[in-house]
Each structure stands twice: as C-alpha cells, then as structure tokens.
Amino acid sequence: MDMFCRQCEQAAGGKVCSIKGVCGKDAQVSALQDLIIYSLEGIGIYGKLAREAGIKDAQADLFVVEALFATVTNVDFDPQKLQRILLRSYEIKNRVKTAFLETYKKQNNGDFSGVLPQVVSWEPAASLEGLIEQGSKIALIPGINANEDIRSLKELLLYGLKGMAAYADHAYIFEKQDEEISFFFYKGLAALVDDSLTADELVALNMEFGKVNFKCLQLLDSAHTEHFGNPVPTKVSLGFRKGPAIVVSGHDLLDLEDLLKQTEGKGINIYTHGEMLTSHGYPGLNKYKHLAGNYGGAWQDQQKEFAELPGAILMTTNCIQKPADSYANRIFTTGLVAWPGVTHIERLNGKKDFSQVIKRAQELGGFKEDKPGKEIIVGFGHNATLSVANKVIAAVKSGAIKHFFLIGGCDGAKSGRNYYTEFAQKVPKDCVILTLACGKYRFNKLEFGNIGGIPRLLDCGQCNDAYSAIKIALALADAFKCGVNELPLSLILSWYEQKAVCILITLLSLGIKNIKLGPSLPAFVSPNVLKVLVDKFNIAPVGNVDDDLRAALKR
C-alpha cells in the first residue's frame, strides 16, 4: 500500500514519503489522516454556508480544530483514535448540514438547490479496514492534480490551517476562541475543493489566512499570560535532583500545571523537555519548587534521551516518536497525541488524572544523586523584552547594537541543521540573537555574553510564542518610525512541520521580507509559486553561512 505525504521538511528525498513516513507514520495511518481531511472539507462547505446563514455550532468549531490538529506531523499515530475521529466527523457534518438546510428553507421559503462538491456526500465505511481503503483511494485535495501551482497553493493553505489548528486548540483549552478564526477554518477547508479559484485568488486567500493566524497567535498569547502571568527572565537548570522524576514534553502548559499540582509534596521532581523548556519563565509555573529543570534537548533526540532517563515521560501535543522498547512501559500520552499501545490519559469531567504517571515515576525511583548542571536563561517574551525597550533603542542609536537576528523555528534530524549553530556562533558580538521554538537547541547552551547588560541571546519561547517575536519586531519598527523591513533585523528560520508553515505565511502576510528559510524549501511549493514568493517577498533558502551573514549585515 502506497502513501503520499510531503507536509513536513523531512519528506523522503526532499520530495515525498511514499512507502512510510520519516516521522514513523505508516501508509494506513496516512490514509486515515487523508480521509479525515477529506471529511473536514465536507464539513467546511456546510460550515461556511451555515455561518453565512447566521448559524454557529461551538461543538463543530472545536471538532474541526481538534481533527485538523490530529493530522499534524508527530501527533496521532493510533488507527483506532483516527477511526473515532472519522466517525465523529460524519456526525458533525450531518448536524451542520441539517441546521443549514432547515435555516435556509425558513429564510428562503424553499429548499436549497445549490450544486456542491462530491466531498459532502462522503459516508464512512463500517470497519477500520474499510476506512483505510477509502482513504487510500481519495486525493488529499480533490480535482486539481492537473495544475501544479493550484495544488501547491492549496497545499500551502491546508498545512497552514493544520498549524493554526494547533494554536487554536491550545487557546480553546483556556476557553479562548474568536469568531473570525472559527469562520476561517470553514472558509479555508471549503476553498480546498473549490475548482473555480485562480492562483491569484489563492495567493490572496493565503495572505488573508496569515493575518487570521496572527490573531490566533495573539489569542493564545493572551490565554497563557492571563493564566500564568507574563514570562520573566528565569534561570533553568540542566542538571538533575536526586529522587523520582517525570519529564514533560510537547507544548501544553495546562497539562504541566495539572501535573505540578498533583505531584506537589510527593517528592517527585518535574522536568521539562523540548519546547516545554520555556515554561520555566511563567511565574504561575515557576512557583512550584519541584519544577526542577530541563532534561534533554529537541524532540528528535528523544529516543536516546528517554532511554537513559530513570523516570516516567508525559507527552503532550505533538513531537512524539515511536517509543523504543527501553521506555515503552513508562511513557504516557495525553491530549491529541497518541501512539498505539501507549497508555493515554483522557480528560474526564474537565480534569486529567495523572496518578498512573505518578505511580510509575515512584516505582522507577529516579536519579540516584544530585547532579548540578549548566544554567540557561529563558523568559524573554514581548513583555519582558519591551520593558527594556528604551535601553535597547539607546544601544542601537549609540552603535553598541548593530543588528538583530531572529534565528529560530523547528529542529529536526535531517542533515544541514548545523547551519544554524554555525550561524549563531559567527554572529558578531555587537549583535543580538532572538530565538524561539526548538531550533534554539542547536545553540542555546553556548555562551553569548551581553551588550551593556542586555543578553545577546534572548529566548522568546515556544513556537506557540511566535507572537512575542513578531510583536517585538513591530514595536522596534514603531520606535524607530520605520517598517520592519527597514530595521537592522534578519530572520533566519528553520522549519519542520505545519505550525512553522502557518507562522511563515503570517510573516509574509505582514509584509515581512528577506526571510532565509531552511534547511531545505518545502517540497509542496511549485517552481512558479516559489518565484512569486521570491519576487514579492525576497524569500530565499539558506546557503553558505559566511555569505548569508555578510549579506544580512549589509542591509
């Protein structure tokens, strides 16, 4: 059974995974995920019509977000869970459809007679095997295979929607939602099966999406800061404490808080991993004394790092890899992330019970002795950074700070990512580096020093905190009374999966140019679409570090 997946940077051969995903996804899981997108396109059509008729359905809104997020790279590998999503999608589609048809009839004194795409007629097969067969036979984006550029622009939109779903889902957890964001999910999904859209219209739709995603990032930022407080510069230990240990990976801050509450006073130390590193900067989380530090590095090293851990592991949201036998009996998942055979912690009556994770950590015993380690600093969100904006501006005007580099994004195992380490090392000492997401693990343990008391490396947070980096750039532009593109600022970004795609689209929608993207360009971007991005935004692949650095400093 073949598959077709090129949604992440590590697509086989830089083109497409056709036998098995580099992420570990097999052809059956790929077929089920493609079928989920197909079913969501049907919901998108009826959802858009329903919204335009004044009908809202909060359950449908949340379902669309969660179902899209489940198809993001390194999230849900469990066929049974994907089957449940598909069966639920059929129920949601019929509910939204019925509400629309009944309302339309009342509003227009007659039945709806519009011609809709075939996707609205999809019905799920009775068995898991039947669903897999259905998924293997449908096109991810139906009806447009003949036009490479149209397909490319629709794939760009689809992967952007998947990324925004991740951010929207995190906001939903804090009961934060927005009508414009909810509506665009339906509008975007419906557009994927609209054969009348031209390339120009799809470019415009992608730019519209970017601005909606910026609003979504802002919504998530407010959800986090209102609940946990604004991040503050905080030292994080990379060492260990004696005693039982639980490592928390992924992105979900509320899961971390729940676990901290449930382990308080039990002698268990909690460590962050991957993108959870920046949790330490939030006062509402750092107040827990048993939040002991950070264990390991970026997500792609987890199999080696978790094998060496004498503790339990909790995976929240995306970033899971196939658990090795050495730790398969002490890893747990929660939220939308899932792996077959791994114990999953569900939310019941609004709460999650992590007692199984806690018990396993106690059984394992944890680290035998204290091992002090290096400390690094996190917590330079927009509030903390802009609180010293006058000092930064004065340093720029005096010439003490010559340039800013945003070096961040997703990390991955594919070769070429040493570029970012080398680039950071070669940035001149009169320049400041902003960073966010797990790409920082390539260089965040290096010593960069400071400029007049301003640290040369400012960690702005997770990929979920991209709003902070954008807001800092916009605030600097406002302070210097210029556009972002006129600032002494260069964006050197790495991408891996769909959350990075939607952030890139957001940057472009804000008119930000001259972005260097790597370690390779998306396989789904056609030559003509790439030419548009180059001509309009001067986007370019990363190249030789010395040449790229020299060109950036000339701007």
Task: Kindly describe this structure.
The protein is an alpha/beta fold. It contains 18 helices and 18 strands. The protein has helices at 27-52, 58-70, 79-108, 128-137, 148-173, 179-191, 199-228, 253-263, 283-286, 302-307, 355-364, 382-386, 389-398, 418-426, 466-479, 498-509, 527-537, 545-554; strands at 234-237, 245-249, 269-272, 291-294, 312-316, 331-334, 343-345, 347-348, 351-352, 375-378, 403-409, 431-436, 450-451, 454-455, 457-461, 489-494, 516-518, 540-541. It has a 6-stranded parallel beta sheet. Helix 16 (498-509) links the parallel strand 16 (489-494) and strand 17 (516-518). Helix 7 (199-228) crosses helix 16. The chain is globular, with a radius of gyration of 23 Å. The mean pLDDT is 95.
Radius of gyration: 23 Å
Largest sheet: 6 strands, parallel
So what's the oligomer here?
single chain
Number of helical regions = 18
List keywords for this structure.
555 residues, 6-stranded parallel beta sheet, 18 helices, globular, single chain, alpha/beta
